[in-house]
Fold:
Amino acid sequence: MKKYLLTTMGIAGMATFMACNQGKRTPDATQSTPDALAANVDSTVNPAQDFFDYANGGWIKRNPIPPEYSSWGIGNLVQEELYKRLRIINEHAAENPADDISRKIAAFWKSGMDSVGINAAGIKPIEDQLKAIDAVTTPQQLLQLAATQNIFTGAMCQTYIAQDAKNSDVMALQFYQGGLGLPNRDYYFNTDDRTTKVRQAYPAHIARMLQFTGLDSSAANTAANNILQLETILAKSSRKLEALRDPEANYHKMPVTALNKIAGNIDWISFIKQQGVNSFADTIIVGQPEFYTALSNAVKSQPLETWKNYLKWHLISSAAPALSDTIALTDFAFYGTLLRGQEKQKPRWKRVLDTEERAMGEALGQLFVKEFFNATAKKRYEALVEDIRGALKIRIQNLTWMSDSTKEKALYKLSRITKKVGYPDKWKDFSAMEIKEQSYLQNITAAHKWWHQYEINKLGKPVDRNEWDMTPQTYNAYYNPSNNEIVLPAGIFTVPGKRDEELDDALVYGYAGASTIGHEITHGFDDEGRQFDAAGNLKSWWTKDDAAKFNARAAVMVKQFDDYVVVDSLHINGKATLGENIADLGGILLGWDAFQQTDQFKKGEKIAGYTPSQRYFMGYTLGWLSHTKKEELARRVLIDVHSPAKFRVNGPFSDVDAFYEVYGVKQGDGMWRADSTRVRIW
Structure:
């Protein structure tokens, strides 16, 4: 995925859209609004020393991070515009629900905005589930309840439906590590000051939350320490972030009965039936078998009471944002303030819109694209995809380190990449989602149930390769290796506050062509994506010699990013971020190749004092216009496969020869790297 400036699911937005009609743009130096690139520059910074601070520093100085956010940047600006528009859609629906979709939107909005009712209810919306946990007296009862609760909370483990990595025509039930209350396994073991502070504060937070469920202070504190011990057992057998990026090592296909053998204290056939999977799941795919062995052992070794409190903890933690302000703010103090540096919550109406996006964002998307993204814009970006595809074709043909046989297969895979631009051709049918006049948490639960059943219904049926996993208004994009496709929602092409005619090709080829389209296409050929063939199957198509050469070149990039210090003593994890770093570099190179074919590049006329070549690199950097609090940076270093924004600019630019030429970078400059240490892959 390309963007990671926000972390809320459904990061989205729309102001106006850039056209990408190659060679047909007419740059206008007398724009009605400030130039989108020049306005952000910090002229006190030498671009050869720190390009990110040069291109974005002026904006960063003028725009401090608001207290309710952990970072602030272009993604937030786009999101703010979307918030305003979606609020209007919701309020209009509440006033005049004309059809089924608008009635659901109205019901969801009203339930979420009913702060008086939500606060009066307190813990009541989950009282029945808490009573069910209290009623458990045997391990068998515990596991039956855990299987049901897992659908909503992710307690114990992760189960989901997805394409079989080695047979992309088949949907399969998949088992993955999970069940932790902290962001990932490193939080349970790392010894740096920030992580240690979080881990030490965790039991007290659990105890405060458990007191809302009815435990007294002493019992809650004892339970919290036992829960930490239990989760530490699970974390110990959980794989590190970089290890999860090896698709072959995280693929273990087996009959359900085999999982019973390696994790025999849990009846897995009963577990999946309890989740509603009654057929088409004789064979499953387990990502990390050792985790399930540890989970099974813990079911036997840890007291039943500890497990019951563990389920209570994960229940209230998951439900907290939809419960009373007292509960929600207690939850936020840990997960929002301590972990991410947010000083206060977003206003309720924004939080409701975020939740609504997760629940039925595509329904909102149908209304959204009618007004903000037309068929003409869709065609323009489809054309830009072909420009970038053509640039990669030439690069593959010209590679000196790859054999002809692997080149032939790479070119075939490239030709088979499907592009999805703007919005889906077919919309999901939400008519069976039981969103109605009921409590906020009941509506959220109804959405969970709908999505759960929607996924289960995929088992035993042909793969729907036309489906989208993001909504049109999302400010993000992705490459799906199982479908060999790039998905580019309408929202990702937005430049806040700008009309299409104000955007020159240089900006567009950097912002949309490089940091989005080129980035996603390159994912098909990064260290993970290259292991999937043209049909989307995890299958080797490289010669051993070519694979070794690729890995040697990728190792140069791992070393480069390992050396970057993000905050305190925390370095970027070069192995964990390798795929995204390769995609960033590839996107920049492809966008640059394609941009050189445009009339603007050939004419070389300046806009706002900058040459077309300079504007191209500034356009790419615009995609990473943001700054982030230290708490959030530290969190992302541990859990995110993306490098922080600054390093997604300065890192790959220092590997691009054209950047050195355009900005006169020389030895001794901050952006300079010796030629022998520059990454050369695609």
Summary: The longest strand covers residues 167-176. The first helix runs from residue 51 to 62.
